Amino acid sequence: MQLGPVAQALEAALVASCPGDAPLGLAVSGGGDSMALLCAAAERSGPPVLAVTVDHGLRPEARDEARFVADTCARLGVAHTTLCWQGWDGSGNLQDAARRARYRLIADWAAGQGIAHVALGHNRDDQAETLLMRLARGAGVDGLSAMAPARQSLGVTWLRPFLGLGRADLRAFLDERGQRWIEDPSNEDTRFGRVQARRALDVLAPLGITAEGLAAAAARMASARAALDVATREAATRLACEDRGDVVIDRAGLAALSDEIARRLLFAALAWVATAEYPPRAEALADTMAALITAPRATLHGCLIARHGDRLRLSREPAAVAGKTAPAGAAWDGRWRMDGPAVPGDEIRALGEAGLGLCPEWRASGLPRASLIASPSVWRGGALIAAPLAGFGNGWQARVTTSLRARIVSH
Fold first, then answer.
1. Which of 61, 164, 181, 203 has its CB 3.0 to 4.6 Å from that of 32, i.e. a possible disulfide?
2. What's the confidence (pLDDT) of residue 376?
3. pLDDT over threshold 60, residue 2
4. Which fold has domain 240-318?
């Protein structure tokens, strides 16, 4: 098939965003954006593609929509999987809960398939709408840089190859192929912020504020954000060090930084220690740092921040991990791995006060008591098997699988 201009643009976007021969995952809902992604990827003579659809179980039509995607994939020769979510309890923000669940389910699916990259159908119009929504919330540089072409989360690199293309372009591509798509009725529900932003774009267009212009503004903000990340990494190299899962920061050096870089360094350290997807609110961080002028320690975002002479130590808050458990071969608290002579049933838990009492050599570690209480340890039923950070290795080692420096990246 000879490719038209839109098809060529889609293929070029896929080649640029998804190079190489490794299998590529596609998140396909059945809407116009993701169906264009599916068809373009299936036509491309590149890496094998596998598609996945998440049925959130929130609308009676969802099952038929997943079946529609599966039938289309079968016709295109693309392997397809439907994942079901049943985690909605009726409380909180439904759209946010569904989004988080969708990413978790897809990430688990990708890991099981040996897929490191998953492509999403977000386009230029989505970028503009996201910028408007974040502008309404008073976002700064990070928020206004909107969506990145690639970001890492949950062990997956999420790709957005079509951010330079408009929604109308993707639908024109589908029309050329006679491929239908499904319109989600929630796209017309004005209770949702994204729908409100979409309507606002129609109103703003006569003023020259278009999706193209807003997407270009987001790209410029992303460039500014990348420059700030470079400055933050440089500050982290000079002033911060990782100490067995904690972050230790030079207080005088931190105070000498510009407010923006100091805030970014602290945000990154807190998010890394807490294995959090997002940092705390700027106001909460400012209040905490003000309290630390006189108080010896404070808690924020699941972390304990303590003054130790001329340094700040950020460690995991013991209460935040008191109930966390994981099998001995799995990650604990999102970033710890325990290597040692495991037997079936061994479990990783926070050491806790009781466990620390079973480690008479813990003071020789040089770590504060609070850090050790929140550190990973191996238990066999009610018996402590190992607590490497507290001086009780017993053939085991504890290692952190991520780094602070890696956390200071645009996403």
1. 181
2. 98
3. no
4. 3.30.465
In tens, the pLDDT along 265-279 reads 999 999 999 998 888
Binding residues for ATP: 29-34
Number of Cβ within a 10 Å radius of residue 255: 9
Task: Kindly tell me if the per-residue pLDDT of 1 is higher than 60.
Answer: no
Domain boundaries, the chain: 5-216, 240-318, 321-402
| CATH placement of domain 5-216 | 3.40.50.620
Number of residues that this document lists for the chain:
411
Q: At what angle do helices 167-176 and 32-43 cross, to 10 degrees?
A: 60
Residue ranges at the known binding site: 29-34
Residue 91: per-residue pLDDT: 63
